[in-house]
Request: fold
Amino acid sequence: MGLERADDAGVYKLTDDLAIVQTVDFFTPIVDDPYTFGQIAVANALSDVYAMGGKPLTAMNIVCFPSKTMDISVLTEILRGGLDKMREAGVVLVGGHSVDDPELKYGLSVTGTVHPNRVLTKGGARPGDQLILTKPIGTGIINTAVKGRMAGEPAIETVVQSMTALNKASSEVILQVGVNACTDITGFGLLGHACEMIEDSGVGFKIRSVSVPLFPETLELARMGLIPGGTYRNKEFRSKMVEATGIGDVMLDILFDAQTSGGLLISVGPDKAGLLLAQIKEGGATDAAIIGEVVSHPMQRIVVE
Ligand code: CO
Ligand code: CO
Ligand code: CO
Reply:
C-alpha cells in the first residue's frame, strides 16, 4: 500500500496470498501503575495491526528509561505487563532496544500478516453503511481528571479495563462477517479518525451523539473543563469537515477527545450490521454500538446530531 493515503499500518505484499503488516507505537505513561502501563502500551501498539485485519505475530520492545532517577523495578513491571499482554494476543517478543532518557516511554514495533485481498482500509465506506464503534469514548478526559484527582474509582476502573483490552476478537469477527472500512480510534479522537475515513471519498457520515457510548463521568468531567490540549487541537484541525447541529460544545469536545488504545470504527453494509454488532459484543466489547450511518450527501463531511 502506498503512502499517498496513510492507513493504520504499513502493508507489504510478499506473495499473492501473503502480506506483512508493520507498525510502531510508544508513549509516556498515562497511568501510575507500571504493570498496567505496560499492558496499555502493548494493547495500543497492536491495535493498528488489528485495524488492518492483520494477525500480529512478533514484536520488539522500545524503551526509554531514566536509569539515574528511577528504580529499575519500575521497568521490570512495565515489561512484565507488556509481555503478559503479548502472550494474551499470541504475539512473540523477539527483541528490542532501550536508551537512557529523562522521560520514560514504552511501546512496540509489531509485525503481523494479512491476506493481500483482505486488508481492512480506512477508505471504502458506502452510502447506507452503518457505523459501529466498539469501545466507549472519554479516555483523554478521564485520564486528565485522574491527574487532578477528580475522577471517581468506578470511572478509572472502567477506563483502565478498556485501554488494556485488545481489539483482537472484534477484528476477527470483522474479517468473518466482512466490512467495507475500518480504523482504530486513537489520538485524533472519534471525529478526527472518522474524518480520515471520508477524506478523498464520495461519501459523508451522519453521527448520532446520543448513540455514542461514553465512559462513566465523561460528560460531567468535560463540563468541568477537564479536557486535554490534544482534544482542542483535534477540533481545530478538523472543524471545517464537521457540522454539529443541536449538540453542545461539551459534547463536540468529547467526540474529538484524544483516545488511548480506543476501539475500532467500522463501516459495514446495513444487512450485516446487526449480526456484526451482536458478535462483537459476544467477543467481549459489550459497549459496542451503532453510532450513525454513511450518506452520499454532504460529501466528505460529518453531520453530528
Ligand atoms: Co490507527
Ligand atoms: Co497508531
Ligand atoms: Co485499517
Summary: The pocket of cobalt (II) ion (ligand 2) is lined by residues 25, 48, 186 (CB under 6 Å). The chain has two domains: 10-118, 130-304. The domain at 130-304 is CATH 3.90.650.10 (Phosphoribosyl-aminoimidazole Synthetase; Chain A, domain 2).
